[in-house]
Specification:
By secondary structure, the protein is of the alpha+beta class. The protein has one domain: Gcn5-related N-acetyltransferase (GNAT) (Aminopeptidase). The protein is 31% helix and 31% strand. The chain is built from five helices and eight strands. It has an eight-stranded mixed sheet. It is globular, with a radius of gyration of 15 Å. It starts with a strand and ends with a strand.
Amino acid sequence: MEMAFETERLELHVFDDKHIEYVKQFWGDEEVMKLCDGATSHEVLFKVIAAYRTCHEVNRLSVYAVKEKETGEIIGAAGFNITGAISEVELIYHFSKNSWGKGFATEAALACIELAKNHGKVQLVTASASPENIGSLKILENIGFIFKEMKWFDDTEQEEPYYEFTV
């Protein structure tokens, strides 16, 4: 299990098929994903993991499994969706319910910003969240993202606050 980055309490690892049971606790959970276009079916999760692993192999940047050092468990995912040039990437993070409210998302998001800075090719990091997801919006603002506009997103079929972070 290749580690991409380490913080005081967390490790970001390249996804592995062994992570599937943990992944079900966030991407496969309706409550966790209700503001993000819903849960991903468990049958599709292996493909999601494989896609992020391939993304890391190709780009040396991806979405990563977030491991809590104290428990050794995968508690979420954080990193970058890359849909075009590596110069502009989208920050995402999702965490299992039992890890909410402990600062893990903020710590992982800051780690991701460091990954983007260290990468060398990333110039802009974008992010958005449902207007109802006050916690995620606060995280973005607290780690230095700048609100740009309300923007329509086809996948969630709604306008969402859109943020940018210049690397």
